[in-house]
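Team,

Forwarding the record for the chain on the shared tracking sheet. I've put the sequence and predicted structure together so nobody has to dig through attachments.
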Amino acid sequence: MTDVNFMKKLMMFAAAAIFLAYAMPTHALSVQPNTLIKGSGAAVYYYATNGKRLVFPTEKTYASWYGNDYSKVVKISDSDLSSIPLGGNVTYRPGSKLVKITTDPKVYAVSKGGYLRWVKDEAMAVTLYGSDWSKKVDDVPDAFFTNYQYGTNLQNSIEFNVANELASATAIWQDKGLPAPTN
C-alpha cells in the first residue's frame, strides 16, 4: 500500500469517527430546564431555559426566591451536572430585600435584572419597606456584588414599588430575561 493510499484511508477513518461521535445520541438529562438542581455538593443551581445552570451564591439569595423550601431541588448525578455549562449567578429576587455590602453603608433596593437602586435615606426605606426595614437588609459578599448593576438612584419613593418589583419577576427566567419554559 502506498503512503498516499494509507493517508487517504486514515483520513476517511478519522472523518467517519468524528461524524459518528457527533451523530451518536447524547446522554439525555433526567431534568428539564426551569428546575432547581444540585449534584453531590452543597451548591444549588437553577437550570435555566437557555440550557445553562445559574448558581445561588448564598442561602439568602436562594431564600429571596424560595424561602427555606428545598423540597423542589432535584438531585442529579455529578456527570449530568457537569454537562450543563455554568451561566452565572442568581441575584436577589426584585423587591424581596434590601441589600448592601459590608464595606459600604449604602443600602440598595433590587430591581428586575439585578439592578441596584440606592435608597438615599431612612425615611425612604421606611416608606418602601416599613418601619422594620433594617431587618430586611442583607449583606451581599463583596465577591458577589459584581453580579449586580447600578441602576438610577431613587430620588423619591414613588420611583420604586415593592409589589410591582416582586410581580415583575416571579421566576428566575423572567428576572434574567430568558425564554419562557416550555414544560
